[in-house]
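Let's practice the habit of predicting before peeking. Look at the sequence and jot down your guess about where helices and strands might fall. Then scroll down.
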Amino acid sequence: MSFFTELKRRNVFRMGIAYTVVAWVLLQAVDFTLDIISAPNWVMQVFFLAAVVGLPVVLIFSWVFEMTPEGIKLESQIKPDESVTQHTSQKLDRTIITFLAIAVVLLLGELFITKEDVPLAIPAPEATVTPPEVTGQSTVNSVRSVAVLPFVNMSSDPEQEYFSDGLSEELLNRLAQNDRLRVAARTSSFQFKGQNLDIGEIGRQLKVKNILEGSVRKSANRLRITAQLIQVDTGFHLWSETYEREMDDVFAIQDDISQAITQALEAELNAGQPSVASNPTENLEAYQLYLQARYLFAKRGGDNLLRSVELFKQATDLDANFSEAWSGMGVAYSLLPVYTFKMSAKEASQLAVESAQKAIQIDPESPEAYMVLGRINARTDLDVESARKNFEKAYQMAPNNADIVNLYGDFLTLTGDFSNALKIEARAVELDPLAAVHHSDMAFLYLILNRNEQALESARTAKSLAPESWDRSDSLIMSLLRLSKYDQAIEAIEEAESKPGAIPEYASIWWAMLYYCKNDRESLRRILVERQESAKINRMMYPTITAFYITWLEGVEAAIPLLQVAYDNRDQVLGWPEYFYLPELVSDDPAWLAFWKQPGLAELIEARREFGPYENIGYWKERTTQ
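Done guessing? Here is the structure:
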């Protein structure tokens, strides 16, 4: 008898096939169970290796032993006429057929289940927003609009939240590169995180017709990403897919998803041809650090921004040609003086410029980097022409980027181009309707123009969208004070002061404005003394504001030294028009006018004069002596 025939007689082949089929079915059951309990990836790998190791063991066992009615016996101890291998082979055939049937059912089930909806946790924002009307029509039909909701983190480690958020944001950015699609901005889309809300309601609030949602499971180097594109009006799934790949394929997955979505919208809505984005980096460790940095950056706050800068630095240390990490670092540096005393505006601005320039050196088409340069040009350098060029370049590159639109509107406000500033800021609200910052900026623009009732309306919206944020009370408090609603303003100030993270030096600005509006000179002087005493410990927050009140109390001569400190330290409020718009509207004192002729200030004031004289601009009121 040949060896091959003996293998068949002893059912070695059948045993191998039966073992393989049964093991595969059992591994599917184990994988399903481990997914439910969010077990780490290595657990499944252990089961798989055990199954692989078990195969040769089973084959050897079936060669050496035979299963008989009396139990397991060595093959060598059984006489040929007593062997029951034929009966055993029939049992094995039935086992193989049964488990093959189960395998087919499982395969078909997985095929259909991956197309079904994935239950996601989606929260309602604090308030329903009706943004102000925008002059002109949007360049993109509202039907060709999509919002990317934050993908749900299904990983066992909550610390992987940064990755699911980051992946969502990266997809959003890739879709936004299609100028025939209107993509809801990150701030508004990410309002819907943590609680359930109907897709139709989300679409209504974001003013989009399509929603992309999904989930991410990341374990070690393994990814499982599920995504689906839903039509808001009908709930119909235009597209859905599940990806199970290695982390090395993360950029390919992003390309696949963005192209699939664009193709789905192209087929249904004629939304344009899909494009493939270049990978921001080939270093996956650098990319994960970048996503962590973006995650912290989005949270704002001094400590979060400082930590995000550190992570951006680590990413660029691993990949010096990572343009997005350099530009992200530049934005973080540019915002630091707004949130913390731990770095001066002058130092932060210098580092922001260096980071942005490095980003542009690597990628000359980086709109975020030009936005950073424009912001520093305008707020710190007071270089109006450079700021205008950089903002216009950023705006041309990314006209649907809400952050760029918002900061461009701020620049127009700075220069006194108020009519265009209103249009641009309204556009930011249209792009990102649930972002409190845009409504707050609208409120401050209305305050500059002394349209105080409209300012209060926008300020209330901003506050309702960020009820836990102490600094989003700013525009509300100022609007109430300008309308002489002092009791409501005091209540709002006290509430803001009680919130976590509130900065006492910032709150003193509100109290100073209260006493200024009420003509309470004694209380105003007390607040200014407290601010100057605090400045001996920390750098004074916004010396320009203190100088404004000193100008009203004591005259321009007393205020000039402090304004010079503000100029030398690049106080970002110095050029803001609500405090000092045109110097001649305050005083004709030669020393006073000479101060405003210093480099940068002279060009800024001249730019404002070109837009014509405005009456009743900002907070300044006629000075009276006691």
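How did you do? Confidence is low (pLDDT under 50) at residues 113-141, 271-276.
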